[in-house]
Automatic annotation (TrEMBL):
It comes from Deinococcus roseus. The keyword Metal-binding applies. The gene is mnmE. Homodimer. Heterotetramer of two MnmE and two MnmG subunits. Belongs to the TRAFAC class TrmE-Era-EngA-EngB-Septin-like GTPase superfamily. TrmE GTPase family. This is tRNA modification GTPase MnmE. HAMAP family: GTPase_MnmE. It is found in: Cytoplasm. Keywords: Cytoplasm, GTP-binding, Hydrolase, Magnesium, Metal-binding, Nucleotide-binding, Potassium, tRNA processing. Exhibits a very high intrinsic GTPase hydrolysis rate. Involved in the addition of a carboxymethylaminomethyl (cmnm) group at the wobble position (U34) of certain tRNAs, forming tRNA-cmnm(5)s(2)U34. Binds 1 potassium ion per subunit. GTP binds at residues 227-232, 246-252, 271-274.
Length: 435
């Protein structure tokens, strides 16, 4: 179905650039281009896939800029509709004037993500792929980009297709059995495929944490007693002197954040005030904050000075989000406790092992070449599908068949079949304008 209106947006980043693009999509895209473009050829009378060189004109016929028009004829375009790309010098003013001209000629300003929404509605990509487009734009690390690219190529949808096939076949087998009970359903057509799908869904859910972290990044707080070496370790991980280090206990009083990439995850490192009882109101407020930051962080590194008398700190952080470190091991004192890793911020000893540990804690053993769940929407749909598959494994045939149907609905939801307009709108609302 071709939408009646033609949308327009500046598709390149705001600001100065070598080249800028205004993109038109819809039934009037090429006729609008005809009216504002002057060159040897006419966009609407050009074959798709060609570019035309010439000048862009404003309402008075004055030249806005020289540039090129790229012609795409539906369905052979990003959106599946007729598309004209007006490529100019990357001048804020030229792009603005060109946009205005397109609106004067009848185009409507595109909403965020509306080009990709149209690509979805035209069936050029499914919802998982559309979400991947957005992830790709926002990817801050190679890991996030690689994941988004896999998603864009349909990797998640392909995995789901395999499961849908198994479920549909099982449902068929059960229904046949209900019609002809004397036949019975052989185990390998009933339990085996359901168990396989259950496994696969569980496995997919395991990837969600890594997927979320690769996308949104992780917050990593350093906690410990005063002088434990938190600021020194932060500086050592960053590779520059971000935080003040002195031999005085209580140096860091407020928390401080620094950004870096670690193991392909965008990391916010948080240095905090050393935790101790104190009469100093300012320091006490800092301690309060430190503990709070620890509770809210994705991971906490809890530091203890191995060269000082032991005075462990109790923090309200579950074990799986905790990494215990003994610091200053270059001073020659180390205790033996498997729960602790040793580091020296001064010599760098133990830092590679710490990075490995962080990778394991953050990404687990998720294979980098397989696709990860990356949005809350995906996690919810897979969780719901899994519940119904589990239902199907425990319930008698008639109910099992219904459970499988529900599981199939949730998997279909993932790729964007039978999803409400609201859900779709919600997804595209977070996109950039022009995407
Ligand atoms: N200038 C420009 N660069 C861009 C995009 C764009 O729209 N414009 N893209 C998007 O934002 C991405 C590329 N995605 C695209 C996907 C499909 C088609 C397309 O026209 N496909 C047709 C023709 C294929 C062919 O000729 O081989 C088709 O699939 O039928 C274009 C871009 C990234 N770079
Ligand atoms: N030998 C040695 N000294 C260290 C090491 N790490 C830190 N120190 C020293 O320990 C002292 C305290 O270090 P900081 O990094 O300021 O400790 P902190 O945990 O941030 O302390 P507060 O901000 O007061 O809570 C400084 O004199 C550092 O030079 C280390 O690995 N080896
Ligand atoms: Mg400090």
């Amino acid at each position: 179905m071709i939408r009646a209106d033609t949308i327009v947006a500046i598709s390149t980043a705001q600001g100065e650039g070598a080249i800028g693009i205004v993109r038109l999509s819809g039934p009037q895209a090429l006729s609008i281009a005809d009216q504002l473009f002057s060159g040897k050829r006419t966009p609407s009378r050009t074959r798709g896939g060609r570019f035309l060189y010439g000048r862009f004109l404003d309402r008075e016929g004055e030249t806005i800029d020289e540039g090129i028009v790229l012609v795409f004829k539906g369905p052979h375009s990003y959106t599946g509709e007729d598309v004209a790309e007006l490529q100019t010098h990357g001048s804020v003013s030229a792009l603005g004037a060109l946009l205005t001209r397109c609106v004067e000629l009848g185009a409507r300003l595109a909403k965020p993500g509306e080009f990709t929404l149209r690509a979805f509605l035209e069936g050029r990509m499914d919802l998982n792929q559309a979400e991947a487009v957005n992830s790709l734009i926002h990817a801050q690390t190679d890991t996030a980009r690689r994941q988004a690219t896999l998603g864009l190529q349909g990797a998640l949808s392909k995995r789901l297709d395999g499961m849908v096939f198994k479920l549909a076949r099982t449902m068929g087998a059960i229904q046949a059995m209900l019609d002809y009970p004397e036949e019975g359903v052989p185990e390998e057509d009933r339990i085996v495929p359901l168990l396989a799908v259950q496994n696969e869904l569980n496995h997919l859910l395991d990837t969600a944490r890594a997927g979320k972290l690769a996308q949104q990044g992780a917050r990593l707080a350093l906690l410990g007693r005063p002088n434990a070496g938190k600021s020194s370790l932060l500086n050592a991980l960053l590779g520059y002197e971000r935080s003040i280090v002195t031999p005085i206990a209580g140096t860091t009083r407020d928390y401080l954040e620094a950004h870096m990439e670690l193991v392909g995850v965008p990391i916010t490192l948080i240095d905090t005030a050393g935790v101790r009882e104190t009469a100093d109101v300012i320091e006490a407020a800092g301690v309060e904050r430190a503990l709070q930051l620890g509770e809210n962080a994705d991971l906490v590194m809890l530091l203890e000075d191995a060269s000082a008398p032991r005075e462990p700190l109790d923090v309200n952080v579950p074990e799986d989000r905790l990494i215990r470190l003994q610091t200053k091991t270059d001073l020659g004192q180390v205790w033996h406790d498997d729960r602790y890793q040793s580091v020296s911020a001064i010599t760098g000893a133990g830092l590679p092992e710490l990075r490995d540990r962080l990778r394991e804690k953050l990404l687990g053993d998720q294979a980098r070449h397989e696709v990860w769940l990356s949005s809350e929407r995906q996690v919810q749909a897979v969780t719901a599908a899994l519940e119904h598959v589990q239902g199907a494994l425990t319930l008698p045939d008639e109910l099992a068949s219904y459970e499988i149907e529900l599981a199939l609905n949730h998997l279909a939801e993932l790729s964007g079949k039978n999803v409400s307009e609201e859900v779709i709108e919600q997804i595209f609302r977070n996109f950039c304008v022009g995407k």
